[in-house]
Design goal:
The structure holds 2 protein chains of 2 kinds.
Chain A: H1 3-21, H2 27-39, H3 43-62, E1 72-80, H4 89-103, E2 111-112, E3 117-118, E4 129-135, E5 141-148, H5 150-153, E6 157-161, H6 166-181, E7 189-196, H7 199-210, H8 221-237, E8 250-257, E9 265-272, E10 277-283, E11 289-291
Parallel strand pairs in A: 1-4, 7-8
Antiparallel strand pairs in A: 1-5, 2-3, 5-10, 6-9, 7-9, 10-11
Helix pairs in contact in A: 1-4, 2-3, 6-8
Chain B: E1 5-7, H1 12-15, E2 23-32, H2 35-42, E3 56-58, E4 63-66, E5 72-76, H3 86-96, E6 100-103, H4 109-118, E7 121-124, H5 130-134, E8 137-144, E9 154-169, H6 176-196
Parallel strand pairs in B: 1-2, 2-3, 3-6, 6-7
Antiparallel strand pairs in B: 2-9, 4-5, 7-9, 8-9
Classes of the chains: A alpha+beta, B alpha/beta.
Chain lengths: 299, 203
């Protein structure tokens, strides 16, 4: 394939996929919501779950973004070092964002800071936001597209604990964030927790944690145990859909971690709303692709 | 049980029997009004380009499509986090005479006070259900302050049975979400104690 043709092909794929994920929830989230709906017992909470299901049906039928807040577009790129368009990928994703904004259509959500003007294109300084990881000896690229609305972005918090506060301090931090600010973030939430050294390392990991499927577990047994303890504990609070109380509070808790400085425990919390609009796509060297998050998806 | 439907202009007596947790629907007009519109009225003392006496506002920044005939189509409209407007809402109610504030999540003591004093209510539309709400908008009749961009423009919508709207602050100043948050916080400590005993990973 000529390079120019390849660039065009990939831009079109990513524009369509970006628009698509604003209209359809990933399969893991759909299944989890159906499960939570089925076991809810409070009448008001049941009615809210029903509105949510009706909304997703309507979004599908009318081909519209299911939530009006289609976020600032973020792409988490896991790129093979030998992917043919590695150098072009940043520009391709910006162009894909512009096209998706017009065609989906997406809400205009990029406000230039200090200038305080909406660009009207969902592109701007460092927007769409790109996160990169490079994989040696691979010629494909895997991209997570994520649309986080303002509502579920607002609770985001990070801090650095002293080691004496331990993992008990981590649990307390997570509970404080969710009980005080999670209520407004469209629960049932997916909670992403980063455990690391500093605020920025923990914060990045907490967002990466939200890219993991609902119901997946950290490979470390202690981290997986803590995911379960936090999930069960938060559910026991009974926040319910939209904070109106109910059987559950969260779709799950995902923890990602790194090694840490012996003197610090960096911890961060990011929340994904019930309309957790993320999608993962793998692009091969010949620009053919496979959608990994949405069963039966057609672009 | 039949649907309880409020119609604009809303009168004090339409709201006096409503209590937090009640579910209502709205027919008539509702204007989107969020961060900058509140700031312009309260802080910058600019006159709102719409009359909200007896009216309803929606804390929402929708997706709107401009059609070839110059009209606007409501694509997707759901509530945004109401708490962001807490700082301004009491004065907003006082100055505009708005009766119904629709949004998401809770609001605080200033809004409670405004609702109680001026007989207004805050209601929650289920967040994220933006296509559901868009299908309840019959027409966008006007668009004011378009210089603010798509999310912040004051979109004047004619709606039919917009809802479900869950009353979260009533005219007596009861606050459903604050009450719920107090319950969540009360449960927090005993749950955390159970967790603490199992996460002593630093040995």
């Amino acid at each position: 394939m000529e390079k120019q043709t390849a660039v065009q092909s990939l831009t079109e794929t990513m524009a369509k996929f970006t628009a698509y994920i604003g209209k359809h929830l990933p399969t893991d989230v759909e299944k989890k919501l159906a499960e939570l709906r089925a076991r809810e017992t409070k009448p008001l909470a049941k009615a809210i779950y029903l509105s949510m299901a009706e909304n997703q049906d309507a979004a599908n039928r009318l081909d519209r973004p299911s939530c009006q807040d289609t976020g600032v577009i973020q792409y988490f790129v896991t790129a093979g070092a030998k992917f043919p368009l590695l150098g072009e990928l940043g520009d391709i994703l910006a162009e894909a964002t512009r096209e998706a904004t017009e065609k989906a259509p997406l809400r205009h959500n990029a406000v230039e800071t200090f200038v305080e003007k909406n660009t009207g294109t969902n592109t701007g300084t460092k927007i769409p936001w790109l996160d990169w990881e490079i994989v040696p000896d691979d010629d494909s690229v895997t991209i997570d597209v994520y649309m986080a609305g303002g509502g579920c972005t607002l609770p985001g918090s990070a801090t650095v604990l002293m080691p004496g506060q331990g993992y008990e301090g981590v649990a307390e931090f997570v509970f404080n964030v969710i009980s005080s600010r999670g209520v407004n973030a469209c629960p049932p939430l997916l909670v992403g927790v980063g455990v690391s050294t500093a605020v920025e390392t923990a914060a990045r990991l907490s967002k990466k944690a939200l890219m993991r499927p609902v119901g997946s577990h950290n490979a470390d047994p202690n981290a997986a145990k803590m995911e379960k303890l936090l999930e069960d504990g938060l559910n026991e609070m009974g926040i319910g859909p939209q904070g109106l109380t109910g059987t559950d509070s969260v779709m799950g808790v995902n923890i990602e971690s790194s090694a840490r400085h012996p003197s610090t425990i960096g911890v961060a919390v990011n929340t994904g709303c019930w309309a957790h609009r993320r999608g993962r796509i793998r692009i091969n060297a010949d620009m053919s692709y496979e959608i990994l998050t949405h069963e039966g998806a057609k672009l | 049980m039949s649907k309880k439907v409020l119609t604009t202009p809303i009168k004090d007596e339409d709201l006096e029997d409503l209590r937090v947790g009640d579910v209502v629907y709205l027919t008539g007009h509702i204007v989107t009004c969020r961060d900058v519109a509140h700031r312009r009225l309260i802080e910058l003392k600019r006159e709102l380009p719409v009359d909200l006496k007896g009216g309803a506002i929606f804390h929402a920044g929708p997706i709107v499509r401009k059609l070839d005939d110059g009209k606007f189509e409501m694509v997707s409209i759901g509530p945004t986090t109401s708490m962001r407007m807490e700082k301004f809402e009491r004065e907003f109610i006082e100055q505009t005479g708005v009766k119904l504030i629709v949004g998401k999540g809770g609001m605080g003591p200033l809004t409670e006070e405004g609702c109680k004093k001026h007989k207004a209510v805050h209601a929650i539309f289920p967040g994220g259900c933006a296509v559901l709400a868009a299908t309840q908008v019959e027409e966008i009749e006007r668009a004011e302050w378009q210089d603010l961009g798509m999310p912040e423009t004051l979109w004047v919508n004619r709606v039919k049975e917009l809802g479900p709207l869950i009353i979260s602050i009533d005219t007596q100043g009861n606050n459903l979400i604050e009450k719920n948050k107090a319950e969540f916080n009360a449960k927090k400590s005993p749950i955390l104690e159970k967790i603490y005993s199992q996460v002593g990973f630093i040995k």
